[in-house]
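Final report, closing paragraph on structural work. Over the funding period we assembled a curated collection of sequence-structure pairs, and we close with a single example.
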Amino acid sequence: MKLGKRLQTLHDVVTQDYQHIWDCCCDHGQLGAQFLHSSQAHIHFVDVVPALIAKVKQDLTCFFPEAETRYSLYTLDVAKLPLTQYLGRQLVIIAGVGGDLTATLMTSLCNDLRDEVDFLLCPVHHHYSLRQTLQSLPLKVVHESLVEENRRIYEVLYLTSGKTGTAITPLGEAIWQQGALSKRYLEKTLDHYARVAKGKPEAQAILSAYQHLTL
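Its predicted structure, as stored:
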């Protein structure tokens, strides 16, 4: 199975061993299927839309007939993942949805954490407000980077509720150290908030924060 550049980057960021990996709404289960192939973890496929989970089940039955004991399927709101029911190291992946929804899901999930859990996020927009929400949660940054696919640039956030890692910042740190890609991302971000600020004065503060970045 060949992944696109964005999903492949998310896959390659994960270098630790996990007992459980939760693939939440990630491009019809492609990423989880790749981990089913490359790791020994039990893969949990989750989506709130029954038809999408049915399609994932069909694909897994076809391409991974020998691995049916190594994955589970859920038609479930991601905010209600039963993380506390499982032992061992867990990774929750939320990619391909907006930053506002990601923030809502993360707030709900982090309200009920008992053991250390890692999260891999790749939202499609609203990164600043998402990062503000994440700052209020018991999380730290393990890795952050940018990835470009089809002329769109995404932020990748690998977080942990454990004790290792660095503080989450509203603008990010390492994402501005990727040379020409970082410069293009900053230009796109400045253009976006300049347009938004014309109709929403509250966006001016966000625009000003990005304007103070020096690359």
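The two ends are 37 Å apart (CA to CA). The chain has a mean pLDDT of 94. We thank the funder for supporting this effort.
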